Amino acid sequence: MTENSAISDAMSRRGFLKWALGFSVVATVVGAVVPVIGYLWPPTRRSAAGGGRVLFGSVKDLPVGQAKVLPVNDKPVIVVNTSAGGVKAFSAICTHLGCVVEWNQSKQFILCPCHDGRFNPTTGAVISGPPPSPLPSVRVAVEKDQIFVGGA
Amino acid sequence: MQKSTSLRPADWVNRLIDWIDERVGIREIVAYSVHVTIPRTAHTYYLGGITLFFFMVQAITGILLALYYHPTPADAYDSILFIMNEVNFGWLIRSIHSWSANLMIVFCVLHLLRVAVQGAYRPPREMTWLVGIGLLLITLGFGFTGYLLPWDERAFWAPTVGTQIAGAVPLIGNYVQDFLRGGPDLGALTLSRFFDVHVLVLPVALIGALLIHILFIHQQGLADPEEREEYDG
Description:
CATH class of chain B: Mainly Alpha
Structural class of chain B: mainly alpha
Oligomer: heterodimer
Number of strands of chain A: 10
Strand content of chain B: under 5%
Number of strands of chain B: 0
Number of domains of chain A: 2
Mean pLDDT of chain B: 88
Largest sheet of chain A: 4 strands, antiparallel
Largest sheet of chain B: none
Shape of chain A: elongated
Number of helices of chain B: 9
Mean pLDDT of chain A: 84
Distance between the termini of chain B: 57 Å
Radius of gyration of chain B: 22 Å
CATH class of the largest domain in chain A: Mainly Beta
Distance between the termini of chain A: 76 Å
């Protein structure tokens, strides 16, 4: 017994090899599982990461009287090319209960599909329906036909 | 010396296995699945196992790629760019799928050459050989259909030429070509078709043929190259 205990005090060859085997197995499993979990994790949108403005696209892609909703800094924003006031952008979150608003092409106003709240596309003011306040406007800039949305 | 017992399963694991064994005889199934007769002289019998390993890599990475891939002409290439540039480790998963695909075919062929050179296809193992040829063809089918899916220039032209080769068959060539393409030209229908075959038809076919292949091996044991087996078929 004294011989055995003397060996087990320091790390024996067998103990070292067992440890090395265990380490190899764990390292291999971790090396395989970590990329898979990372892959399954929803990818981040780089355009919205920094809190800066986002390139919406060309003015040509948004004729007068049309609008599109796009995510800016993880929040939906509706960009409208109005006939009266040029390109405008508003938060697309309805001030009533938080639904995402949409563009009514035929009647030319911003419509919340949940409870028929209607907003003026030039000012964001409430035309009719339950919303208590106008849609907050979002900064929009047109530079050389390129529309940039958001930012300070 | 407490540490030496750490690799053995805990008592509750044994009791759980006992519980299952009493009902469905799991120990017998596992023993049959694990034990294969391998000749003492065997030195080259790992090639099929490596091929199987690469298939498992393909299955896992393929399932992952299908999460972000869109099989439509408008979105296919953009979704590849998205996987490579935006998805975490997307470049790694796609590259592993690509490399592993090539290596699977390489080891499939090496496995075939080993069996051919050592004459392991001889009676009573002809059926294992035939199923193995089927597995090789399925694997090549994976390669052919998978090549189209990135939908870039190279992906477009390789299956164009490939289906034209099928079109050169006398009499039925044109029908075969249209059948493969889903129409006279390579287009949206071809992409849908190839994607369907790549992720639904071939995986099921390969797993089925693989089970038969392995079942035969387990029934017969592996051929001994040192021994001239006399078989009176």
